[in-house]
Amino acid sequence: MKVTVIGLGKIGLPLAVQFARSGAEVIGADVSQAVVDAVNAGTEPFPGEAHLAEYLAEVSGSGALRASTDTAAAVAESDAVVVVVPLFVDEEARPDFGGMDAATEDIARGLRADGSTLVIYETTLPVGTTRTRWKPRLEEGSGLVEGRDFHLVFSPERVLTGRVFADLRKYPKLLGGLSQEGADRARAFYEEVLQFDDRADLERGNGVWDLGSAEAAEMAKLAETTYRDVNIGLANQFARFAAEHGIDVHQVIDASNSQPYSHIHRPGIAVGGHCIPVYPRLYLWNDPHATVVSAAREANLEMPSYCVGLAAGAMGGSLQGKKAAVLGASYRGGVKETAFSGVFATVEALREAGADVVVHDPMYSPEELARFGWDAYAIGEPVDLAILQADHAEYRDLSASDLPGAEVVVDGRRVLDPTRFEGTRLIVVGQAQKEA
């Protein structure tokens, strides 16, 4: 089987490697010549993905995977085309289809008129996009008819960067076609190039799941991620209420989740990343009347300002002229990525309150932080207050002596050890405030 994977990013490249390791002849297509050159050299173009370096060297060296910037030519010699081009969104998470439209035009130019090509989009999309956007563009650009000359399917990626190969085995592969023949071909394709762990907890069993339509598969990805955003929004509202009434919300959550019908997530300063803060907006693109979804999104967006307010309240109501350190630029611990990170809103709220803001992150150099417009902070320098925004492992052992002069520390992720902050007012999101 010959396969083209379009988009060799943090999801697409591991997918291409997975397919190649499973016996397919794979072409990775990308607009970046630097990425293409790295892949052809067997060198991972980005760090942090478990096993990618060794697996990529293996399949590149054997010739099972090669890369090209000529997408149309790659499509022309392929039986299956898997699209993992990112869908860019603006600050309000409104979709910009420009990159995906361009990739779709290239696919259309490469389609063969023999009914053999299977085109699968894996990028998370608003419901209906496969049928109403990609199908007409592919047909218009190729002069072919979907369902007769080629087959179109949606199958959402469901993996987390850093553990893609493990997640590919762990979770069912969802799909939905515009025709049953397309869905059947996609099922056969994925059963050939993926391997699945046994999951006794799944009544349907682990493996490839045909959801019956592209729209159902599109919605499934949006639903599972939107659920998490809504759940976190509820946890954040519980946290704010609990703190105001002298209750430790974390004990409440542990107690609630001790029976099988409650699965409350953890509160925190921010919800960031490419997925959780974005996909609810893609869902709202189709369903603007989903008030529960929009209310949760707004509740989560308020948390950075809320945490800054906690600090201000603990310091007498004003942060004017105070030196404030934000700990963590990344959207979550262990990941060098600032997509929709809470750092932006936290810095903005602190500056609006009159604070002099500095930012620290163990994964970013001072020069890299400066490109965001932030002055870098070094652990051990004097500050008046600190707000922990990302749960990097490096922060778990921090103590008051690491933040000399800090009157208040707001732990937005509940990772700090209170016994290390004797004499400092440590505020944890969702816990009643205690005097130093």
What does this structure look like?
The protein has 436 residues and is an alpha/beta fold. Helix content is 39%, strand content 15%. It has 15 helices and 16 strands. It has helices at residues 12-21, 33-40, 52-62, 71-76, 98-110, 129-142, 164-170, 180-193, 214-244, 249-256, 279-286, 291-301, 303-314, 342-352, 366-370; strands at residues 2-6, 25-29, 65-68, 80-83, 88-89, 95-96, 117-121, 150-154, 173-177, 208-210, 323-327, 356-360, 375-376, 385-388, 408-411, 425-428. The strands form three sheets. Strands 3-2-1-4-7-8-9-10 form an eight-stranded mixed β-sheet, sandwiched between helices. It is elongated, with a radius of gyration of 24 Å. 47% of the residues are buried.
Main attributes of the structure:
15 helices, alpha/beta, elongated, 6-stranded parallel sheet, 436 residues, 8-stranded mixed sheet
Topology, pairings included?
Elements: E1 2-6, H1 12-21, E2 25-29, H2 33-40, H3 52-62, E3 65-68, H4 71-76, E4 80-83, E5 88-89, E6 95-96, H5 98-110, E7 117-121, H6 129-142, E8 150-154, H7 164-170, E9 173-177, H8 180-193, E10 208-210, H9 214-244, H10 249-256, H11 279-286, H12 291-301, H13 303-314, E11 323-327, H14 342-352, E12 356-360, H15 366-370, E13 375-376, E14 385-388, E15 408-411, E16 425-428
Parallel strand pairs: 1-2, 1-4, 2-3, 4-7, 7-8, 9-10, 11-12, 11-14, 12-13, 14-15, 15-16
Antiparallel strand pairs: 5-6, 8-9
Helix pairs in contact: 1-3, 5-6, 9-11, 9-12, 13-14
